[in-house]
Amino acid sequence: MINTDSPRAGPALALELRRGTLVLAVLSALRRLPACGADLRDALNRFGIPIEEGALYPMLRRLESQGILASERRMEGSRHKRIYALTADGDGVHSHMLAQWHQLDAGLTAILEET
Amino acid sequence: MTVDLIDRYLRKVAVWLPTRKHRHLLDSIRDDIQEQLADAPSPEEMQAVLRRFGPPPLVAARYLRMHPVIDGMLAPTYYVVLGLSLLVGAIVHASMLIRNAVHEVPVAESIGTVAANALNGWLVTYAVVTLIFAIGSHVVVTRVQARADDGACRR
């Protein structure tokens, strides 16, 4: 069990913070442009948000099962690719998450500036 | 060769999946792996893709959306109930020691019998309390998840 009072808990807490943020990053990237998992991973990597394939693909499947994403299989070259896009509901979820993100960011900035 | 490697990998993942979800999840995982492969991947490239995708138990957990056996919300209650149940068991067995002493049962025999009964009792108590809370956790998590999914779809 992790002792959250210990500085050793730092990486675990950072991972927790990152997990929620990754969903927002994925939705933001897909809002710009529908993409398959590999292209999405490359796009996030370009923006300095690396994500493992083993975490990204199950996340996309989960978001699709929640109705936030929709996908269709397309043939590209000789390979099938599953292209993901935001649904109308997903667009609403993204706006809601983004508003929360901005609110948290503003609050955190204010706290840090005051201290 | 490539198909063999994927099949072997999927068989290892399948070990960690419940039977009723096997086919659907394995098809999804196969699609997701194949999407990452070049047209004619070498065995080394194939192995690198599978290594990056993760060890089979982790892959199974990620696709299954596994929840902890005891949900964090119920954990404090679980520990209190478990502690009290074990304490009551200890008191009951301690009283058996007194009863045996009154009936002049030899001390070594009395301690041996009571210790064996106490151990059995604690194991059963632990199993029963954990099972009840695991079922409770499953119900709570399923309801919270359904509400969250419903909320996500309405927004």
Can you describe what's shown?
- The complex is a heterodimer of chains A (115) and B (155).
- By secondary structure, chain A is of the alpha+beta class.
- Chain A has helices at residues 10-32, 37-46, 53-65, 88-114, and strands at residues 69-76, 79-86.
- In chain A, helix 1 (10-32) packs across helix 4 (88-114).
- Chain A has a two-stranded antiparallel ribbon.
- Chain A has one domain (11-114): Winged helix-like DNA-binding domain superfamily/Winged helix DNA-binding domain (Arc Repressor Mutant, subunit A).
- Chain B folds into two domains: 2-64, no CATH class; 75-154.
- Helices cover 79% and strands 0% of the residues of chain B.
- Chain B is elongated, with a radius of gyration of 25 Å.
- Chain B contains six helices and no strands.
- Chain B has 155 residues and is mainly α.
- Chain B starts with a helix and ends with a helix.
- The A-B interface holds A 36-38, 52-55, 57-58, 61-62, 66-68, 77-82, 89, 92-93, 96 and B 28-29, 31-32, 34-37, 39, 49, 52-54, 58-59, 62-63, 65, 149, 152-155.
Q: How is this fold's topology laid out?
A:
The complex is a heterodimer of chains A (115) and B (155).
Chain A: H1 10-32, H2 37-46, H3 53-65, E1 69-76, E2 79-86, H4 88-114
Antiparallel strand pairs in A: 1-2
Chain B: H1 2-14, H2 22-35, H3 43-53, H4 56-64, H5 75-102, H6 107-154
Helix pairs in contact in B: 1-2, 1-3, 1-4, 5-6
